[in-house]
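My current task is to audit a protein record that another person submitted. What it holds is a sequence and that sequence's fold in token form. Thanks in advance; the entry in question is below.
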Amino acid sequence: MSKPVIITCAPTGGIHTPTMSAHLPITPDEIAVASIEAAEAGAAIIHLHARDPETGKPDPSPEIFAQFLPRIAQATDAVINISTGGGLGMTREDRLKAANAFSPEMASLNVGSLNFGIFPMKKKYTDWKHPWEPEFLESTRDLVFKNTFADLEYTVKELGQAHGTKFEFECYDLGHLYNLAWLIDQGWVKGPFFVQMVFGVLGGVGADVDNLMHMHTIADKLFGDDYEWSVLAAGRHQMNFATQSTLLGGNVRVGLEDSLYLGPGQLAPSNASQVKKIRTIIESLGHTIATPAEARQRLGLKGADNVNF
């Protein structure tokens, strides 16, 4: 029998802006509620970013994270995963602030630099809630999301070795799998590894099933039996790719960070609605979903008692 499917939910992220959906969690209270609801719906891992509660702009401040991390931890048993991606244009040090402050069980790590183009979204909207939104989107026309080998080494040593935090290794292209293999070869990270394959971001690998199949094949060659893999796809590809991952024995990620929609032309009313939808698909295919305890065991996490919140 296949292993239970680990569902990750990313409630807010640092890509979509407040104008795009009234359902996007912005304030600490909204992020806490969205995360708790997603965990209750079946998400074993909650992947978290923070935002300025007044403007909705991505904000790496530990002071904001402190307003929702304890609430989520007290209300759920979900694994809390703090992003080190932060927001596009942030410095490496800013992106690591919250994770260094709170020493989570998991943190995300983008395993390579890439052009991260979200500027095409700008043409879909005209009436903006905040001035920063169109400027932010347009800035990605000339932006490289920087994750050099020096950045990767710094992060896995600063956070992984010093805090015992394990990583959600976000791989946006084939070369990122090889970057991760290089980190492993240096002896800087230990298995089991959690590889999150990302599809459909302009600048990364396209949302084509052939790409998913090939990346899965290469990951098997590089990491053998010492890894868990998961799939997320941006926008309209979200549920299709999550379903494909389930069929292939992988895990899934959903959430308003990755897609604002529940179906064609239908904004998702909540993160929990996406979790419920993919859970229904997973279970209809004859699979079960993993509990947080099962996710912790399979990913070799240090446990919720060993964090700073």
